[in-house]
Amino acid sequence: MSYKNFPMVPRVVFGRGSFNQLNEILAPKRLNINAPFIYLIDDVFKGNEWLTSRISLSYDDRIIFISADEEPKTSQVDALVEDIILTTKERPSGIIGIGGGTLLDLAKAVSIMLTNEGETKDYQGWDLVKNPAIYHVGIPTISGTGAEVSRTTVLTGPEKKLGINSDYTPFDQVILDSELTKDVSKDQWFYTGMDCYIHCIESLSGTYLNAFSQSYGEKAFDLCKEIFLDDSLSEIESQEKLMMASWHGGMSIAYSQVGVAHAMSYGLAYLLGTKHGIGNCIVFDHLEEFYPEGVKLFKEMKAKHNIELPKGICADLSDEEFDIMINISLGLKPLWENVLGKKWEKTITPAKLKSLYKKM
Ligand code: NAD
Ligand code: ZN
User: In this protein, which residues make up the domain named Fe-containing alcohol dehydrogenase-like C-terminal (predicted)?
Assistant: First the structure.
């Protein structure tokens, strides 16, 4: 098929306090008393009664708190799946991911790997998943990645950082309750919010752009400008708008692609463990030649919110280490093709990438 026939999240609830409806939403999805719901929750919420007291656990339902300090790994998914299989009487009724992109991606991957044989790393790529995932629900607690709406779950494996892109990846249900984002730290709010802004810039200036992507990308871009540059929004308005910007940004790249910042920050993530949001910011800050207007506005937003990005993170790297990052980045061919078209390899050489990485 030359045009992608891609799935969208079939059910979504939006609204402040809508998290209260979770139990009601899940109840009809319970297969039987031996098939529990498993909640994967960012451990930043451990001991947070405000959130956890609203989850009613029945029968063998279980909460697993997971740290988001490191981005999800294929081995981590394998271990979680094994643990769930060993400790449940039957295959779970559903997996509920509560957190940022890290927890949402883990929930998607675990729900896929509970019904597909073998190791998670074997499914990194496009359309390798054979069996439908079990029912999975995404509840973002920080906005920007678009992981709540996307067809991928980004994982670091032994050889690559690459998503499981499949028709079975998107959530069956998403709950968008902006109140859950109220305690995000300012720096993290900026980094993850900028992930959304960068999705828009990369999608809107890419060669893959089409009216579908553009319509979502432009909306998300306008929302980002309001959120990060306009002082008139209330805190609640700003949180609600960023939640929708994230959604639209994710929809925009679903039907196009990201670009230079993502291609290069994947290299930083793989070698140095630099997290997605901050990594994108570090790279994007140096991409004037690719995105002049977008970078100018980014610098304005950065200054307005007094954000200091780390400097010199590549200062002490060896030639071998640069090569590792460059190879990861150059391997993301669709991203480069989106930036510069089919002949991208004429411009994007290892030397070019090295000179850019050296600035960071
Ligand atoms: P994250 O999930 O790693 O969370 C960032 C930090 O914010 C963590 O320390 C977390 O504990 C904290 N946090 C989250 N919610 C909070 C809250 N309500 N209050 C206080 N602290 C909170 O960050 P992220 O930027 O959302 O996600 C990054 C991940 O998303 C990366 O692994 C990246 O690869 C992935 N990603 C996936 C997609 C996709 O389409 N699947 C798209 C972009 C990024
Ligand atoms: Zn991103």
Answer: 191-293
Cα 122 from Cα 257, distance rounded (Å): 23
For 62, residues 6+ apart whose C-beta sits below 8 A from its C-beta are 36, 37, 38, 39, 87
Average pLDDT over residues 146-150: 97
DSSP letters for 14-74: ESTTGGGGHHHHHGGG---TTS-EEEEEEGGGTT-HHHHTTPPP-TT-EEEEE--SS--BH
Average of per-residue pLDDT across 13-39? 98
For 211, counting Cβ atoms within 10 Å of its Cβ (0-12 exposed, 13-18 middle, 19+ buried), the class is exposed
Cα 184 to middle of ligand 1, angstroms = 10
For ligand 1, what atom is nearest to the CA of residue 105? 41
Which residue owns the Cα nearest ligand 1 atom 43?
Answer: 145
Q: How high is the ipTM of this complex?
A: 0.99
Domains belonging to the chain, first-starting first, are: 12-181 (3.40.50.1970), 186-358 (1.20.1090.10)
pLDDT reported for residue 1: 67
pLDDT of amino acid 3: 84
